[in-house]
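Z., the sequence and structure:
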Amino acid sequence: MSSEKTNFYVGVDLGGTKILAGVFDASLQLLGKMKLSTKGERGVKEVIQRIVRCAREAVDESDLKLAQIQAVGIGAPGAVDAKSGKVIFAPNLKWEDVPLQKELEKQLERPVFVENDCNVCALGVYEMELDCKPDSMVGIFIGTGVGGGLIFDRNLYSGFNLTAGEIGHMVIDMNGPKTTWGPRGTFESLASRTAIFNRIKESVKAGKKTALTEMLGDELDDLRSGDLRKAIKRGDKLVEEIVMDAAHCTGIAVGNVINLLNPQVVMLGGGVMEALGKVMIDSIRKTAFEHTLPGTTKGIEILVSKLGDLAGITGAGVLARRNS
């Protein structure tokens, strides 16, 4: 009977502000999902309870029982030890050495697998969009910050200290803005959604004109990535200039990645690319190829992911299926 099937998987995307859980069948088709706010300020125990609640409600939303779930995958922000299932350090959540796998297995009574959130996103786009065909892929995810995931020989590469793929901390401009965690002029400080929004708000304070203030008011409190696309469509030169600067910086970063790692595919994802990929991609490709050694880019593809906000839960579903 179909109700007795157990080849279903839960994928969880744990972020600083939201928890998203999705339920997938054996072919990784999404059956149902649930979203909760993280409420990280309430501490580790409360966040873990909210992850459990989100997963349970997603299963219920899919008309399934928890007993039918074969495994749960979760992408967590920060440094993760996938073997032990511990979150070593997650600055956005103020977590250190949290045994996430152990706690979730205790409460959900299902096998749980934990990985870094950007690694999980990379896994999702690699399996679902590229059908695992390239030997190598670098995923770059541009949202509130910038993260990356590396796939070599069709497997995730985590590095010696399990922190490989921190592409957002690559320095693009030594004289650029200072960052919270380190040096000046990192990729994240120049091209993330936070960086783009900050530049727009500073420009408005300096008296520059933008259609965004007509749309949202002078403070731009409810600014979203999609608003930037709308402003550019309305011929907003300020927004276009700032977004294209971010595209140029992204292109330099992609060029550096190609010079260093020479992956078959560079896949660009995250909220900024979901909203502005069509506006930015030509500039990113052109700039990337201008910053690579002659002959090193033959056959390499630079693509924009179509998974958007679902990359995290999809990748977590892939993680659960791969390990169970």
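The chain is about 40% helix and 20% strand. The two ends are 22 Å apart (CA to CA).

Let me know what you think.
H.
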